[in-house]
Structure formats: structure tokens, C-alpha cells
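=== RUN LOG ===
request id: a7f3
mode: sequence -> structure
chains: 1
length: 325
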Amino acid sequence: MGDTGLILRYNGAAWQAQAGGTTENLRAVSAYSATNVWAVGDGGTILHYNGTAWNPQSSGTTVNLHGVAAYLPEKVWAVGDNGTVLYYDGTVWSQSSPNPVSSNKRRYSKAVGYTTTDYFGVAYVPQRMLYEIQDNDNIEIFKGQIRAFRKWMKARGQQNKPLIISEYGVLMPVLYGFDHNRVKAFMYASFDYMLTATDAGLGYPQDGNRLVQRWAWYSLNDQPWDIATGEGFNGNLFDPETGEITPLGKDYGAYVLTQMGCGTLPGDLNCDCQVGADDMAIVAGLWRAPSGDFVNHPEYDADGDGDITVGDITWVGARWGNTCG
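=== RESULT ===
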């Protein structure tokens, strides 16, 4: 499928052009069988191939259509601009809901778009959970998935084993609304849940029945989203080019330090609830460290002046002997 009605078919040996009866740009194709193929395109164009010829169909719209999915001869969806969703029941095409899923997200089709008004793809997922782009940071869905997997483990006699989430995060870019604060909020909420969620009937007995034992945020330093290329991901903790910690990476570190008790006792850099020689040694070891090292250890800038110097040693020393108690 292509511009100005281009249709090519591969016969097993070579590609051959076929007449489609339209000069509109064609954008997507879906086949239920060799004799039941659908194509959609600009101007509300819908074509059907019966194994012999392509025939135009009445779509009832003039908007550009970007996606089509044929699950059965009488179950076909097409989506396009302005939130358009069309459904074919085996006889005629008609307008459908812009978001044809029920409240529990179980239904036959799901339109996926780059914006809230223009839809660019459609897929059929029978009796499965169907998620929207904006669900990427839905903490309730996240919690449900953790519990569902623990139930799966228990049903197979694996409850007495730790659950390790090897990687997870918010991959969707700022372009879709996932800015720094939104990603941070999900990261913190997920950490809070995994640290505290317990269930005697599902959790790991050797860990106080907690549901999750270990996890790893994605990503450490994968390529960040690049709007120019459309490649990369959200949520990286370090810049892959410079090695510098990102704002989200600093948030991650701040959360960890809080969990360790750090930050509640000024000068307690090693989080042992007392200020002493170990804390002095930490600062001394990084005194006038190269910026590349310091960037990875901003928590050791005891006096907060943006550099690690003798002033930090003096600042910690003035608090020598203080304890959390």
C-alpha cells in the first residue's frame, strides 16, 4: 500500500501492481484471509479485496484513516483523524466509540493514537487487558500486575520464592505528557508499594510476606527520548553521553537516602545514625574530586556549596558525636 492508490501484491516470486480504483494515499492493510483483505487511506477510503479484485466500500466519513484490523469477516475496525473509529459488522461500516472498551478494559478492539483526537493504529486482543498510552504510569494497574503474578506463582507452587522485577519504568516520552514530575511520582509510588505490600496468602514467607523482594528501575543510562529521531526512552537516571546524573537520578538517590535514614541527621553521610570518623573519611576521600566523580556523589557535598572541599570536612566535624537518638 502506498501513495496515490499504490497496491502491490507478492505472488511468491515477484511483486505485481494491482488496480484499487482510487488515487487516494493508502496507509494500512489487514488480511483475515487471502480472499478477505482490507485497506484504508486518505479521504475515508476503504477498499476490500475478495481474492480477485479490490472494491471500494462506503465508510461514511471523509477523514484520513490510518489503521485497520480484521479479526473476523464480520469484525473489522478502522481508525483515523479526529478520533474516528469505524466498525464493520459484515454488512456495513458504521461509526463506533472513540475508545471502544468497557470500564474494566475488556472488549474486542482498542484504538491507539499519538494524540487524544487522532488515532493511528488499531489492534484486536480478545479477552485480554487493553491498556492506553496514558496507563503507562497507572500505579493501580502496576499493583494489580504484581498481585496477579504472585497469584500465578502460588497456583504453580512457587509462593516460597522471591519475586524479582528485573526492569520496569515509564518509557513513554514527554511528548505524551510524561514529564519529570509525573515520572518521579510513579517511581516513588512504585517504590513505596514494593517496600510495604504484604500478603500472608501470596507473599514470600522468608521476607515477612512481602510481595516483591528486588527490583530494578529502567533505565540506568539508556538513550533518552529524542524527538528528532523518535528513538529512545524516558526515565534514565544518568546521561549516557556525559555520565552526569539526571534530575530523575537525583530523585532516585534522595529516595534511597531517605529509606536509609540519611538526611535526618546532618553530617551522617554513611547513614549509620551517628556522625564520626567514617563520615569525615568520606568527605576527605572526595575532597576536590574531579567533577565527573563529584557528579556521582552530590550527597557528600555536606555544606551544599556545590563543591567538595575542606569546608565540608569542617562542617561534618562540627557535628561530631551527634546521633539519631
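=== NOTES ===
Helices lie at 139-155, 180-196, 247-259, 277-285, 291-295, 310-317.
The first strand starts at residue 8 and ends at 10.
=== END ===
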